[in-house]
Amino acid sequence: LLGQILDHWFESEPLKATLATDAVIGAMASPHTPGSGYVLLHHVMGELEGRRGAWGYVAGGMGALSQAITHAATARGAHIFADKAVCHVLLGRDGEAQGVALQDGTEVRSKLVLSNASPQITFLELIPQEQLPKDFVQRIRQVDTRSPVTKINVAVDRLPSFLAAPNARDGQPLPHHQCSIHLNCEGTQLLHQAFTEATHGQPSSRPMIELCIPSALDPGLAPPGCHVVSLFTQYTPSVLAGGRSWDEQARNAYADTVFDCIEDYAPGFKASVIGRDILTPPDLERIFGLPGGNIFHGGMSLDQLYFARPAPSYSGYRSPVPGLYLCGSGAHPGGGVMGAAGRNAAQVAIKDFRH
């Protein structure tokens, strides 16, 4: 349990609650949910430039990371075709993967196929169900993909000034502006309460907010004096109480709640907003192909990790379809921008290819 880990090391409730956010981030879980301690450790197990547990911003935004990978691959002879939707995997007479068919009718033949899509899209949409073992299909259908996350991107015309650490007169970013700022995290009970509301189909009345200002470190992201603020918030259910969907009114009402909370910590924030983009769980699913809006392609609960990710007997990147490999967040060790699943899958695929 997360609570036991934090109680063992810390006494301060605000510190424990702030650390607890990393245990429930992207998870429809409370700090009191068994297994939540793992997700906290998952967030600190990597390293950045030799510093264990460190995190970093990508200069130019997250898309710049994709561009860097693209340049590295094309320099070694890869051909990359963006905006080409795959409609299904081509199978040979013995059921082995032989390439992919695109929505425009083009067929791309290949000896191996690696899928970075979620297990749900890969196995339930791109492969004919009769080609897969029934128990495997059942397992993929049962993966818990609930997500509590609503992402709000905000453009502001000045730097937020927090009551706890007011801005300097020149309005230049201070050290805390360059970090992850956690709001509504004074106690783990607050997080549990926010979670409980969402389980009843209500967006949290006091949501957990992780606020980042990437333009404080990377000024090219916004015009001079202006900034972009990234809000990672939870808990929001995929379907609202009474079966209501996230219409424009519901989305704006929730965003207003989030902004009211930020206003309490940083008066003047609401007046500084010049644009906002609200992405609820259904939006994250529709736009990015995240099942249920889940940033990890499936919950990082103990029953969906290690040898059980994405399904028992298929945690080694191979799938029931020979020549088809899973290399995204739905494979071991799970989500996060670290590339571990992709690297491991590539090594397995290369080994099979040589044989």
TrEMBL record:
Q: What is this protein called?
A: Pyridine nucleotide-disulfide oxidoreductase domain-containing protein 2
Question: Where does this one sit in the cell?
Answer: Mitochondrion matrix
Q: Which family does it belong to?
A: Belongs to the carotenoid/retinoid oxidoreductase family.
Task: Kindly list the GO CC terms recorded for this protein.
Answer: mitochondrial matrix
Q: Where does the source fall among the domains of life?
A: Eukaryota
> What is this protein's gene name?
Pyroxd2
Q: Where is the signal peptide?
A: none
A molecular-function term among this protein's GO annotations: oxidoreductase activity
- Per its UniProt record, what InterPro entries does this chain match? Amino_oxidase (IPR002937), FAD/NAD-bd_sf (IPR036188)
- Assembly description: Interacts with COX5B; this interaction may contribute to localize PYROXD2 to the inner face of the inner mitochondrial membrane.
